[in-house]
Amino acid sequence: IEVKRSEGIIIEKPYTISPNATIDDMRKMSRQYKVNSFLVADELNRLVGIVTYRDIVFEDGKKKISEVMTPREKLVTAKPGISIEEAREILKAHKIEKLPLVDEKNVIRGLITMKDISNLEKFPFASKDKKGRLMVGAAVGVREDYIKHVEKLLEAEADFIVIDVANGYTESVRKAVKDIKREFDIEVIAGNVATAEGVEALASAGADAIRVGIGPGSSCITRLVAGVGVPQLTAIIECAEAASRYDIPIIADGGIRRSGDIVKALAAGASTVMIGNLLAGTEESPGATIIRKGRKYKLYRGMASHAAYSGKLEREGRFDEEEIEAYVSEGVEGLVEYRGTVAEVIHQLVGGLRSGMSYVGARNIKELQKNAIFIKVTEAGIKESKAHDLKVL
After folding, report:
1. pLDDT higher than threshold 80 for residue 320
2. Residue among 193, 169, 188 at smallest CA distance from 178
3. Structural domains in the chain, sorted by start
4. What's the first-to-final CA gap in the chain, in angstroms?
5. How many separate helices (H) and strands (E) can be counted in the chain?
6. What are phi and psi of 320, to 5 degrees?
7. Which of 304, 273, 308, 310 is closest to 287 using CA atoms?
8. Which residue among 15, 28, 292, 346 is least crowded, i.e. fewest CB within 10 A of its CB?
9. Residues that are catalytic
């Protein structure tokens, strides 16, 4: 829900607050919904004003919103159905950042913000749904209640469902794929697998895309603990060939350390990649920030680590110390170096990908997969590939 509301052409159901609410109420709502302004509405959802953080920053928390808000008569509004170009001109002409949409009865029908319009221009390649909102997927497991979970996720307007288990090559995952595809009109990504047989099992069950990767992640120790897995590039090549027979894409999940790894994963047959570690050190990631010896780090934990598992049990209301102690971890918790913002990291990754594609004369991923040739590299070749014969600053 937060992702869907964070950005879109029109916010269809903007957050509102009563004129009789207090400033303390608004501060509480701001923390809850992570927004700094609200449309002020009466009991019939009619617009009576707007209140922003600037209106309350130095005010007594007991004051009512009606005492500090900008009243309806001073607001610039528009009718539903207005185009983005028209909205941009209104925002520009009146030097405002928010444009409430109201019908002929003054009932709130939406909100357009300058921030959302700017983001449309700043990030033209962002994945958007039909309403111009960011696309978002949601993960489910294969417990007995997964159908109910999917129902709730679709009510929250998830764009696709991910069946997220460590080993996707099981009958329970096949059944979950079939059940979800039968009950709902929604695309399903299933996984994880690392063999052609695993791909065929999930593809024949109806999966729309398949995640590939058993143990390649930086925080994953499945191959050490369970002794199971396939080197990621080998898994991608084998799985991509199997997926091509069903005309579905595969997602390379894990093992991405540099932009060159993305180039190789796509060249091997993946349609896209999943990244964890590279983004875990960014400003926007949820991990705690830690300073050690003057350097900045962020906490990163594998989803199969003890910390992640105990957190999951706590969120689900079934925290059990004995169960946690008995849990066999296949992931670790550690620190990753701070890397700046997500935009800065993505810029470097995209730049490396474009460079790699240009080297093999590829204008798109299909051409990259057609033109790329893999060769074996010796230990001497690996050393030569890195910076050498100097001290890197």
Report:
1. no
2. 188
3. 2-122 (3.10.580.10), 137-275+360-385 (3.20.20.70)
4. 44
5. 18, 15
6. -145, 110
7. 308
8. 292
9. 220, 318
